[in-house]
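Record filed here:
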Amino acid sequence: MNLRFVHVVSAGAVLTGAIAAAIAAPGAVQNNPLRVGMVAVNGAADDFLGSVEVSITNTSRKAVRLPKWQLPSDQFDSKLFSISYNGQPVAYEGAMVKRGLPQAEDFAILQPGETYRRVIDLSAGYDLSKTGQYVVAFNTPLQHASTSDRVMLHQNNGLPMSAQSAPLSLWVDGLDQLGGEKMSAVAKKPVGPTAVVNGVNYVGCTTARTSTAGQAVNAARTYAENAKGYLNTGTIGPRYTTWFGAYTSSRLNTARSHFVNIDSAIDQSNGQITINCGCTSSAYAYVYANQPYQIYVCNAFWNAPLTGTDSKAGTLIHEMSHFTVVAGTDDHVYGQTGAKNLAISNPTNALDNADNHEYFAENTPFQN
């Protein structure tokens, strides 16, 4: 990822037009130092073709350190924009990635008064094929972000602050876009040899990795069956409340439906599931939500235990939950601490968070 920062003379400068200021969520222990601006980038004929320019400015007197995947880029490996068309959510078509703790090389640093600026072709990562009015907003949780005095950018409830813009209303001609190459379309093509072993399709995997991944699939099937069985009994114990928050019948039904679908999907054994071994990044795995059931497993997957917290089997549960036809989950936060805080503060988002599903299934340490 190439990061380009532009120095601004005054951190307190007023941004006009369609640029919107991000504000800290209510109850934040400190002011959000990041201000997000967004404007449409018009074509030669002064028409909007799908691109916006996003600027993220550090308005504080301290440097801000944040994971690079929280910054907009052409890679579309994080869902950073909320887009709606006629009031309905627009499908994100980029990668949904399970990540571990960021390492030093995963961070970008914005010095006081610096601005990160990037032009993004939204049509490359979102479905803008319909002509009409769209509402676009940049919005990403700042998990693991901190200031130079090591103060985490957290709200009082323990959840991360968000970098967010005000919504931008745009008219899009679905037949006249930049035509940016779809990330998901490129990735859909298998890379390397394919082989179906015990009903699972493997792409670019060695014999040893095929065996290891096959064990993970079997363990994930056991996890999914156990989680479905727990929810079908109607039990509301610590296992449920830790990962999905306070009980309501509606939320229980959502969790139950999700794991019925996850169990059904992971049980497929006629080549529908594809394990793609072509990823070499430091992540655990990723999928494209609109491309069931291909799971790209990465370096952290191979180093993870078979079962237990952040395991190979749990990673497959996490990724399977992302598919639109399964549960359509998002990545609001990562890690057990973030997932527990999310369940307490926002049970609805916990039911939409892939890691909460994974940790519920792994059930480590064991809870009733």
In short: Confidence is low (pLDDT under 50) at residues 1-29. DSSP finds nine helices and 18 strands in the chain. The first helix runs from residue 183 to 187.
